[in-house]
Design a protein that fits this description.
binds glutamine; alpha/beta; single chain; 11-stranded mixed β-sheet
Amino acid sequence: MQIADKTHSAVNMIKTALERAKKYARYHIFTSLNEEAALKKAEEIDRKIKNGESVGHLAGVPYACKDNFLSPEGNTTASSKILESFASPITSTAVKKLEQEGAIMIGRTNMDSFAHGSSTENSYFGPTHNAKDFDRVAGGSSGGSAVAVSLDIVPFATGTDTGGSIRQPASFNGIYGFKPTYGTISRYGVVAMASSTDCVGFFAKTPDDINLLMEISNGQDSYDLTTLPDYYNNTEEKTTKKIGVIKDFDNDKVAPEIRTAMKTKLSQLSKKYEIVELDMPTLKYALAVYYIVVPAEISSNLSRHDGIRYGFRADDCHSLDDVYRQSRSLGFMPENKRRIMIGNFVLSSGFYDAYYLKAEKVRTLIIQEYEKAFKQCDYILTPVSPNPAFRLGEKTDDPVSMYLEDIMSVPLNLAGLPGLAIPAGETKDGLSLGLQLIGPRRSDKNLLEFSKELE
Ligand code: GLN
């Protein structure tokens, strides 16, 4: 990642990024650009460099920020109507840390509204297009961020991953995408989706760049009580001996090109490492568990959008109930409403035990199954998703088929584990393929280092 110095001016770096962002406007990557403020920050960095003053580790580096991180740059819309005009009074910890090191946000990126989705088609502002094939989805929910990096508009972008929203769009656009161990980066100031699985992470073109971003942004934060005490920068090096593969993930529902990519990487790895086949029978319930637990948390987190405190408020309402009902009905996208309804259903008194409670129990079994697996191997390699990028519109009328695309990405979110999407070649039609490397909790730094073996 090039940082500003005596020969590379920050202003030029920002100008180039903005020009590229405009050149690719038809991909619909950004919800807003941040030209004036970005250039002003760049001028300040150039001035410091000229005067010999110290600058940060990301001085002048342009980045794209998923539109669910609160900060004063533009409105934080979460690609929704309900927050379309929301100007945040606070800055998320993640953005603050990046900006303290001199990184400059050039714009906010498009996403599925409130991060609900796997294609960025659920955005109130319309879908983002895939970097490799304009007629295909970018993946989601952090589709805009993935395409911004893939098309070299910026060297890195932020994302959030609740059930695959960094790894899946990374793999659909041929770049790296990292979801850290739950609690590694503060969620303070990030629009909440499902608080027990939400993670902040990054898109970039190399594991080293991601490592640098992790070194900067990890750490405990008194504003997010789920953050872990600093382990990332104190991680001891570990030698890797065994790579696990999950038996059930190799089946005829997975695209042949993805199965081939797995085989190629495994045969490459088998020269140096022992490959261990893992029997993980509980993982087949992970998708069902995810689509109970996550909507339950969504229904609770989204209750704050009531048309009273902030965001969109419907006109012409005649009672308080009417304000709530109409603001929410008009302000949320269909997928947001579907999840609120599922969440309320699984939490309602007659169904709580049968759905929510049972799902949380199975979640514990999934966590235990991973713990057992990591006694047999150091890392696990799996596909990110069963298929490469699908066509725009192909799954919009069939939410269940959209959910099924998440079958390989959600299990590790339930267990809080780190996962890295790694580029793994292309299909014969030029679509990107991706695999993911999964490690035990807090193995993040070693995992990123080890991933270089798969380049
Ligand atoms: N595709 C998953 C979902 O729709 C994951 C979303 C995410 O990670 N934000 O729930």
